[in-house]
Amino acid sequence: MSASMTQPVTPGQAAPDFALPAVADAETVSLADYRGRSPLLLALMVGLWCPFCRRQLVEMGKLEGELKALGVESLCVVATEPESARLYFKFRPTSVRLASDPWLTTHRAYGVPKPEATPELLEALGTVKVNPFGEFPEPMPIMMAAKAMDAIDGYAPSPSDKVDIERQWPQLKALFMIDREGIVRWVDIECEHEGIAGVGKMASAATILEAARAVVH
Question: Which structural domains are found in the chain, ordered by start?
Answer without folding.
Answer: 13-216 (3.40.30.10)
